[in-house]
Amino acid sequence: MDTxxxxxxxxxxxxxxxxxxxxxxxxxxxxxxxxxxxxISSSFAGRVADILGRPKxxxxxxxxxGVGAGLEAGAVELAMFVVGRVVEGIGEGLYLGTLVxxxxxxxxxxxxxxxxxxxxxxxxxAWRTPFIILAxxxxxxxxxxxxxxxxSPRWLMLRGRQSEASVAWxxxxxxxxxxxxxxxxxxxxxTTRSSARTCSQRNDSSSTHGKDLVxxxxxxxxFAPDVRSRTALAIFLxxxxxxxxxxxVLYYAPLLFTQAGLSSSEASFLASGVSGVxxxxxxxxxxxxxxxxxxxxxxIYGGCGLAIAMFLIGGLYAGKAVHHSSxxxxxxxxxxxxxxAAIFSVSWAVGMRxxxxxxxPQRTRASAANLAYGSNWVANFLVALTTPILLAKSxxxxxxxxxxxxxxxxxxxxxxxxxxxxxxxxxxxxAFRRHRSTPNIPRRTICSLWKRQAxx
Length: 456
Fold this sequence. Notes:
The chain is mostly helical. Helices cover 81% and strands 0% of the residues. The chain has 24 helices and no strands. Helix 14 runs parallel beside helix 21 (362-393) and helix 18 (295-318) packs antiparallel against helix 19 (329-346). The termini are far apart.
């Protein structure tokens, strides 16, 4: 929800009267200050969940997030506001990775419409109210996480709490056959660990050396020859997912619509809320039909669609075709922003994150995902920081940059990205093995080019 709030709040007249007019650089720093703390805390969020369990880990993250939102709501100085965002970021990193895409897509429209309603107040409550609501929702989420979220049965079994695990299986409605299979796997893992402990007691020095080797393998296995190309592709995909500019659109939607010609703050907030509704609406079929569309096609075709939308907007601004008071240019820009958000939600938002997990073998899945999500946070920070600076320097530069990044990503995926939809791990291994020797360029295309050169 903060994604939908912060961009609108930082352009409210009441906010600017309390903290002064913000330069483009300061504006970007305020918005992006939540992201680096989130990236850092997300790196040990899994460890917190392993120790305390997922519901408690989520609850702690939401509690810290709520405290940060409270600091923002009560800020009397800009520094206090930024500190609140940093605290908020720590909480966000702890819990956000466990939430599904569906929840993340609900939040922005709620934030936009909250700001649309609060902007009509003629006091500092105009910008404080969204953060007060956000803090209250965070505390309700803490309570809900503790009361209603079911602990992971696997986590309970690994800690010997069999009776509680059985209750959790029943609540989740897991089929008895699937439950028995998982329990057998966990028992086998427990036996392996017990054997390892016995061996370690017999030979401490050998065990210490073995642990060091295991630790080194766990750290560097993602760069082993058989998986390093997949790791590089995963990092590239989630880094470029943010360089498509999606969070630039979500964070600064009111600014974008104001630039396009919606002069009043209420109109720009309403248009921003509509963009959030569009994202939410198209995400539902995207989640339903993700397995039918495939990862490779949705990434390539989605990238081409995103590039067309960005280049169209950039071209209109560069050609001086967008006028604030008249002409069709501004409406083409507004509609193109909606189309861009819709294309992203049905293609890159779902498919890329799924691909990162599917493309990795079990031994490197968690480590590779952590690296990829870390690159996503870094790119998110860069986009949030630089978007207002680019918009202040040139009305078209940001759109051409984002369009170029999406087109580059589509080209790279056309050459190096095999399909993983409906594939077993062995089939995925074989697909990447083929890609290491021959990039995914159709043979007919290569042959036709070769024949054409030979005849010329």
